[in-house]
């Protein structure tokens, strides 16, 4: 889910120079961490719950879908016993690319594919891209809009290798499973990487918005687990070029299927990841460590957002060590249960967001710069433009229309999804397990990069569904299917009734579609090359 970007006419771009600072890095410190020895579907579940106590805007999400996952797919179509031979020093990168509105309205997916092509070519590295879920692909790369396709990045650019897929549904486990089973056999390698590309909605609302499917469909976390479990391939890292997916629930659920994850705790701008730099490094040395590769990737993304004053936005990206998830999860449970009263008394997702508490916890020391709303800054600039030119040009009416659009923009934050920074919680709440939790998070976060204006987050969040019945329903359903501890799922139910002041975003102000809050992207033909 990429964050909304307001685009103005080209003659205003030169005037919209927003002040920014340097990127900041947060390093997990080896040695800080000590060794430690240690059903929601019930129809009567919310029978006595009175929504009027909390306000009607809590209930704006769609009704919960009880439909079971389709199990008709032939999971045994591929032979799991087959020995797959691969050459040492080879890498295969599988890109599960659902272009969705990001491509249809802004050509964003095509731009990222071009960044992959720009990195060059290596016979030892396979980049396999499955294109899906997009009604209108940019004509520049020749990707079909009426069907899904599979491409590889070859010596001469993008090469089509499968064109008989029909229009796939990227929001079901079957599609992910088939892509990975076919891909790992067609392009066997000693090192495998899986990338998810599209909108992201955290552990409750999952990944992807396929333009050919219902607007509420998504590839949920449990469906990811189902596909990965059956595909029988272990990945060096799983990366998610999506918003708000650096959540403990996600990293814990996927711990058995990869060594590392690269994920964002905040929303991403339309710039997303920058692919050329880290792919060039991989081409040069296929044995480069995941840490060094991730550092290039993370630094490039942060740098691009810092330098691009118009398309960039606050950003954070983390390299997570999946081998630490089991211990981190157990320590989180100890901390959460002991701190129950404190957690229920305050909406910490909103308190941390507004206070910038996370800034105190970055070991590199982020500045306490006040975060301005970019849309407001641009709005002020356009207001000045209108005042100056209203009587002396024909642009006044057009600028007033632009201003009307900007005035309707409402920033969306991680707190609107009840995502709470994990390390900040441990620092704020003094308990017997606070220090253990801080150290465990620090050990799990190997490298984190963030823009200077991202003061509130440290790299990894947890979901506490404050006053949000529908989010809890979705989250609990997913967690049950991922075999999370039943006691914890039941414990989370309390947060629906938590007596905290929650300022809930007015989703209706963003239009009829669920994903509209992430913005309309102007036609790529208007804004330069893309």
Describe the fold and architecture.
The protein is built from 18 helices and twelve strands. It has 530 residues and is α/β, with parallel strands linked by helices. Among the domains are: 239 residues; 34 residues, no CATH class. Strands 1-11-9-8-7-6-2-3-4-5 form a ten-stranded mixed beta sheet, sandwiched between helices. It has a two-stranded antiparallel sheet with strand order 10-12. The longest helix is centred in the middle third of the chain and has 18 residues. The N terminus and C terminus are likely disordered.
Short description:
By secondary structure, the protein is of the alpha/beta class. It has 18 helices and 12 strands.
Low-confidence stretches: 3-73, 77-83, 357-392, 401-409, 504-530
Number of strands: 12
**Approximate shape:** globular
Give the fraction of residues assigned to helices. Answer: 25-40%
Largest sheet: 10 strands, mixed
Strands side by side in the biggest sheet: 1-11-9-8-7-6-2-3-4-5
- What is the N-to-C succession of helices and strands? HEEHHEEEHEHHEHEHHEHHHHHEHHEEHH
How far apart lie the N and C ends? Answer: 19 Å
Mean pLDDT: 76
Radius of gyration over all CA atoms, rounded: 23 Å
**Beta content:** 5-15%
| Class derived from helix and strand content | alpha/beta
SS summary, helix count: 18
